[in-house]
Amino acid sequence: MAAQLSSEQVYDVVGLGYGPANLGIGIALLEKFNLESPEKLTGLVENPSLPTKRVCFIESYDEFKWHPGMLLPDARMQVNFLKDLVTLRNPMSPFTFVNYLHSSDRLVQWINRGSVIPNRKEFSDYLSWAAEECIRRGVQVKFGEVVIGVDKIQANVDGTAEHLVEVISKVRATGETRTRYGRDFLMSPGGAPDMLPVMSMVKDHDNIFHSASYIHSISQAISNCCSVVIDGVPMPNRPLRIAVVGSGQSAVEVAIHVTNKLNALALPTPAWVEGSNGVAPHQHQVDMLIRKGSLHSFDGSKFANEVFDPENTDLFFARSANSRRKNIGEYLPTNYGVANPGTLEALFELMYSQKTEEGTARRHRSFRNSCGVKTNIRGFSDIINADFVHGASAGDMVTSRKQRTFAITIRHMLDEIITAYEYDIVILATGYKRNQWSTMLRKSEELSKYYGIESDKVDLLPYLPSSKGSNNYMQHAEKALERIVISAPSGNESDSASDSSVLSTPHTSPGASMLDLSQLPHIPKSNIVGLSRGYRLVPKGEFEGSFEAVHQSPREPRIYLQSMEENTHGIGDTLLSVVSVRATEVLGDMYPGEY
């Protein structure tokens, strides 16, 4: 039975999330309307020149936040300030980073600073300023609500039959559920921390957490390990051992910060004894566990940065699956498992200072001038098991949470030697998974059938409408061949860790024309989903060439994805570099000829 709704109950666009991606959309909408008339985006004033009248974004945070768990002192960005929310598509916009500096009365000081790279705290403040300004000008944002369900429904809107997206959210503070209806749905949920399957036995402990929540978790985790109080400050009665897993920017920043934090935790000074592992028994220990042999700086060269140019998205999208995979592989050093050279230099200097102080202490056989922390980089480390020390079970955590330690078993990737290390705290700087969209849509019988989603693991492929489905079939064949016939682990690490099978396939494969899909009945076509150049999810029937969605009546609601399309739109898809231009591309797909 069709739901009976009035036009006031239906939004033209509902957005999941209010991070940089959807913020860019909100700004692009505002700029298309009269910026002096913010009421136009709330439906109070009709604008006959555009179909969009009512927009609403739903955000789980209680206010705008951008990576709040990693706003460390002196944390560095890796992007030019001109790649802000708007400049590449509209340098005259009032939402530029330059206008933010001007409105904050810091433009002259910024120029005198002599750098084009903002620090992370300042850029976070810029994003917050833009978000607040966007809301002030009329964009609706419902903070403190978590989207828990999405479905497609039939509705009668003021006497007109429509198909709508039904979005159900829960208010975090009260548990109340709310339902909204939209003609189009923007999914920009951001990445979900990748806690690594191997950590499943211990991942629910307070002392094991992802770098995404580092700032909010580290102090409590250290406090959990402290059993004495000195001058009102919790202190450990023994050296602490902390593991940082990962080799990217976040991992290096966390290693530096936690080392400095441990330096403030004094320990009793025993007589000199050389530890068997090279760590004096009075020292705290921070181990970076990385799969590579060493830490690497990112490729920020001018020519490499051209991969993030807007026109390269067109080129990437039109390539074959094999070519796209090779392209991503070549440019991994621009973003994956790499760090800012300045941050690496800071870590090296910190570790060198430790060695200097250790040498002085060893020569004098005294701890007086020794460093209180030893930082190690354990390269070629493959974590093969994680458990509680002495076999403690997850059920024991309630009563012994503060005293639990973890046994992390490492296999050296070159010599195959297996070693177990004990840690009090484990911090996972292991990137993010980006499959929340498919998990959510799969829960809807209507939407999962409409888009052909029958698994949380979905491979997105470019939709090329001129091919009438045939070219998409060949890309599906090629993808299936790459995934199943020839597959090998990549060993790649990434701070953004897109959940992408293209990073786990070899560099060569036979042509798609050599594959007969009938010989691979265990590869369901429903796990292959098309995505348009304008970031629109393509219905299964349209992708396979059996119909065109634009000819459906009543008009079907459309779903758009942002920051989850590395396979189809290139390695820069999760980065800030593409936010401004992508906003126009998404809205241009929604309303051809208007943007």
TrEMBL record:
<comment type="pathway">
    <text>Siderophore biosynthesis.</text>
</comment>
<dbReference type="InterPro" id="IPR036188">
    <property type="entry name" value="FAD/NAD-bd_sf"/>
</dbReference>
<dbReference type="GO" id="GO:0004497">
    <property type="term" value="F:monooxygenase activity"/>
</dbReference>
<keyword id="KW-0503">Monooxygenase</keyword>
<feature type="region of interest" description="Disordered">
    <location>
        <begin position="490"/>
        <end position="516"/>
    </location>
</feature>
<comment type="similarity">
    <text>Belongs to the lysine N(6)-hydroxylase/L-ornithine N(5)-oxygenase family.</text>
</comment>
<keyword id="KW-0274">FAD</keyword>
<dbReference type="GO" id="GO:0006879">
    <property type="term" value="P:intracellular iron ion homeostasis"/>
</dbReference>
<dbReference type="Pfam" id="PF13434">
    <property type="entry name" value="Lys_Orn_oxgnase"/>
</dbReference>
<keyword id="KW-0285">Flavoprotein</keyword>
<keyword id="KW-0560">Oxidoreductase</keyword>
<keyword id="KW-0521">NADP</keyword>
<feature type="compositionally biased region" description="Low complexity">
    <location>
        <begin position="490"/>
        <end position="504"/>
    </location>
</feature>
<protein>
    <recommendedName>
        <fullName>L-ornithine N(5)-monooxygenase [NAD(P)H]</fullName>
        <ecNumber>1.14.13.196</ecNumber>
    </recommendedName>
</protein>
<dbReference type="InterPro" id="IPR025700">
    <property type="entry name" value="Lys/Orn_oxygenase"/>
</dbReference>
